[in-house]
Write a structure and sequence with these properties.
- By secondary structure, this protein is an all-beta fold.
- It contains no helices and 4 strands.
- Strand 2 (80-82) and strand 3 form a beta hairpin.
- The model has no long low-confidence stretch (mean pLDDT 82).
């Protein structure tokens, strides 16, 4: 394409010569590269703390009482519960001229509820992180953890 620039004199010879103007163009090229600007070291520390674990232990104890009866009965009484007491009859056959059932004793079993407060030392471990910022030029091979 031929352009005419008014500041330059126009050539009188227009026969076959064309005026050529050089065109210049700037280009931008963008490159990226990784640059280490710093380093970070993260380590964890475990602390052990002793705390008292508190709780309540429930339990039962048994109180056994032998109650002498020595009474003649016609038939064996069954096991029964009266006022939270289990009563178990103990029988014996006694030889007399005739045979009779004699209630010798009863075993009374009473349940007693107990409660005990206890404290037991317990070790608990807790971790927390320590973060150190290191310069970019520090060599990691010289550090010992």
């Amino acid at each position: 394409m031929t352009k005419h620039i008014p500041d330059q004199p126009v050539s009188q010879d227009t026969s076959s010569e064309a005026e050529v103007i050089a065109r210049a163009e700037e280009e931008v090229r963008l490159d990226k590269r990784m640059v280490t600007t710093g380093k970070v070291r993260v380590r964890t520390i475990v602390d052990v703390e002793t705390e008292l674990a508190k709780g309540t232990l429930d339990g039962e104890t048994v109180d056994i009482t032998r109650v002498p009866i020595d009474r003649i009965v016609d038939q064996a009484p069954g096991i029964r519960v009266e006022d939270n007491v289990t009563i178990i009859p103990v029988l014996e056959e006694v030889l007399i001229i005739e045979k009779r059932l004699v209630l010798k004793e009863e075993v009374h079993i009473r349940k007693l509820a107990t409660t005990e407060e206890v404290e037991i030392p317990v070790e608990l471990r807790k971790q927390h992180a320590v973060i150190e910022r290191l310069p970019a030029d520090e060599d990691d091979t010289n550090t010992s953890s």
